[in-house]
Amino acid sequence: MLPLEHLQTAMARSVLAMDPTIAARLLTAGKADPLARLRIYQNNTRGSLTAVLMAVFPVTVRLVDERFFRYAASEFIRRHPPTESRLARYGAGFPRFLKSTDTLSDMPIVAETARLEWAIAEALDAPSSQPRSLAEYDSTELGPSPDILLQPSLRLIISHWSILSIWTAHQHDGPVDRNSAWTRRPERVALWRSGDNVRLALLDRASLAFWHSLKHGLGFERATGRALALDPAFDLVSALMRLFGDGLVTNVRVAANSLSNIWRQS
Amino acid sequence: MSNMFSPLAIPASGGIGLRSPHIAEMLTRRPSAGWLEVHAENYMGDGAGVQALERLRQTYPLSVHGVGLSLGSAQGLDRDHLERLRKVCERFEPDLVSEHLAWSIADGAYLNDLLPLRYDEEALAIVSRNVETVQNALKRRVLIENLSAYLAFADSSMNEAEFLAALVARTGCGLLLDVNNVQVSAHNLQYDAKAFIDALPAEAVGEIHLASHATNQVGTDTVLIDDHGSRVPPVVWALYQHAIDRLGPRPTLIEWDTDVPVLDVLLGEAMWADMLTASIMFNRKQAARREQTTEARATPIRLSIEGETTTSMPVLAAFAAARAARPSISLALPPLEETYHAAA
Predict the structure, then answer these.
(1) Are B287 and B46 in contact (CB under 8 A)?
(2) A residues 131-170 near B, CB within 8 Å?
(3) A127: closest CA among B4, B43, B90?
(4) Closest CB from B47, B103, B151 relative to A8
(5) Which residues from chain B sit within 8 angstroms of residue A27, using beta carbons?
(6) How far is CA B238 from CA A105, A112, B183, B242, in A?
(7) B46–A127: do the CB atoms touch at under 8 Å?
(8) What is the count of structural domains for chain B?
(9) Contact A16 B111 (CB under 8 A)
(10) CA-only gyration radius of chain B, Å
(11) Is residue A95 domain-shared with residue A152, that is, in the same domain?
C-alpha cells in the first residue's frame, strides 16, 4: 500500500495535470467510474483558480476575450499552481506568464495591463495607515532632510504603454476604441488604497522619481535632488502639498541617519 | 491587538456566512443575524474587509472557519499559514474556530479544493498530530468538519464517521457537522446519511453547517456537487431535522458561496433553521409531558430534554424575512462587483 504522502502526491498531480496518472484501482466511487469522479476535482481546481484570476485581472479578460483568458489561465494554473492557500497572493506571476505566451507576443499591452491589475490587487490587500496633515508638523523640528513615510499600499509602475488609459477605458461596459487606447506611450502610474477602493494617478518623470525615492526611504533631500535632476522646474511645494492632500503621508520624522541625529547621540 | 473585543458567545441558533457583497449592508443596517462566520483566509491581509470585520465583531459573535490549513496533508502543516491563522484569531477573538477533515496541499501545490483522505491508522496519526499542533498554537479546541466527497480510497480501513470519532477521542477536538456534506457524500459514495450522523459522538458536535448542492447527470451517474449556490434543499432540511432530533439545538450556519443572493435571503434561511429547531424541541417537550401524564401512576422518569434549551424565535430574523419581500432592499445594495473586488 502506498504511503499517504505518495498517494497524495499522485492524486495532486492527477488533479493538476488534467490527466489521471493515479491508478484507478486505488479509488472507489460506489457504482460510478472513479476516474470520471476524479474529473470533478480537476474541474473544481481549474475552475476555482481561474475564477480567482478573472477577479484579479478583469480588464485583461476583456482585452484578450474570455475564452482565451480561460485557456491562458488554465495553462498558468497547470504550470504554476499556488504554493500556499492564501489566494490573495496568487497571480503575481501571471503578467510575466502572459508576456512569455507566444500568442500574445505582438500584444505586449496585455501583459502590461495585467501588471497594473496585479498592483491594484496588491494595494487592495495592503494596510492603510492614518494620513497626516501638513499642519501637524508646524511646530516640529524635523531637520534638513526628514524621512517622509508614505502609505504602505502605494505602488508605482512605469510602462512603455498607455496602461492607465486602457484600464480606465475598460471600467465601463460598452465598446472600447482600441485604436486610440492601445498606443505606445510611456505612462507612469501611482496607485494606492483609499478605503475599499484604489486611487490611480499619472505622474511626470520628476514626480515619479520624488515619490519613488520617498517610498524607498531615501529621505526628503535625496528625493528632491533626484526630481530636480530630471526637471529643474520641479515644484517642490506643490509636490509636498499633493502628497499630503492625497492622504499619502503617514508620518514625517527626523531622519534616522541624519548628521544632527548622530551628533546628538554622541 | 488582543483583548480588543468583549467576548460574545455564539448561541445555539442560526447564523450566516459573511460574504463580501453583504459587508456594506451589514455595517449600515446591522440586521439581526445571530452570529457570523468568516473564512479565515479572507482576513489574513490588511484590506478594507479586515477593518470592516473589526467593526462587525463589536456587534456579532464570530466564528472563524479555515479552508486552507490542509489538516490531512501527509507532509505536515504549513507553519506560516498556521501562524497567519493564529494572528486572525488573536485579532478577532472568535468564539469558534473550525477547519476541515481534508487535504489541499501536496507536491508543493495548493489545489484550492478539499480532497478526501484514505481513512486508516496512518492518516489518523497524521491528522491527529496536525490537529494537536493547531490546538496548541491557537490554545483552544477547534472543530473539524466532515467532507463532501466524490470518490474514496479503496484501501480505507474505516469510514469517515469512525475516523472523526477516533480523532475526537485522540485530540479532544470538536466536530462541525456539515449536513449538506453528509447528504452529498452519502449519495455519491452510497452510504446511509442518517447512520453517518448517528455514528458521530453527539457531545463533540459544536456547530452545524447548512448549504445546498447541485445535481449533475454524467452518463448514468447522478452526482451531487457541493456548490453552496442556492437555498438549502428539502432533503438537507430533513437531514438537519434528524441531526437536531439527536443532538439538540446547535449553532447552525447558512453557507452560500456562489451566486450569492441579497442578504435577507440568507437571514431568512437562518430563521428557518431556528424555526425548525424550535419546532423539534417544542414537540419533544410536548411528547415528554404526554408521557409523564400517561405514566403518572408509574415511577416518574425524568426525560433529558437537552438541558431544557429553548431556541427563542428570532424576532429580528422575522423582520429580515419580511424585508426580503421588499424589492427596495436589493436596490439599495452597492454595486456587487466593486465590493467583491475590494474584498477579494
Answers:
(1) no
(2) none
(3) B43
(4) B103
(5) 151-154
(6) 57, 53, 10, 6
(7) yes
(8) 1
(9) yes
(10) 20
(11) no
Between CA B114 and CA B255 the distance in angstroms is 16
Cα distance between residue B69 and residue B89, in whole Å: 14
| Residues of the domain holding B60 | 14-343
Rounded average pLDDT over A216-240: 94
On whether the CB atoms of residues B292 and B265 are closer than 8 A, the answer is no
- Which domain covers residue A203, as residue numbers? 128-266
Domain boundary among A125, A146, A173: A125
CA-based nearest residue in chain A for residue B148: A41
- A129-158 tens-digit pLDDT: 999 998 888 777 777 778 899 999 999 999
Q: Are residues A2 and A45 in the same domain?
A: yes
**Quick one: pLDDT at residue A141?**
76
The answer as to whether B5 is a domain residue is no
Checking if the pLDDT of A252 tops 50, the result is yes
Q: What is the mean pLDDT of residues A89-105?
A: 95
Rounded to the nearest angstrom, the minimum Cα separation between A5 and chain B is: 5
Cα separation, A3 vs A12, whole angstroms = 14
**Range of weakest confidence among A9-23, A196-210, A214-228, B224-238:** A9-23
pLDDT tens per residue across span B73-107: 999 999 999 999 999 999 999 999 999 999 999 99
Q: C-alpha cell of B162?
A: 469512525
CATH of the domain at B335: 3.20.20.150
Final residue before a domain boundary, out of A125, A155, A182 = A125
Query: pTM of the full predicted structure?
Result: 0.86
Say yes or no: A145 and A263 in one domain.
Answer: yes
**Nearest CB neighbour to B153, from listed A16, A27, A56:** A27
In one letter, which amino acid is B93? Answer: E
Q: Tell me the average pLDDT of chain A.
A: 90
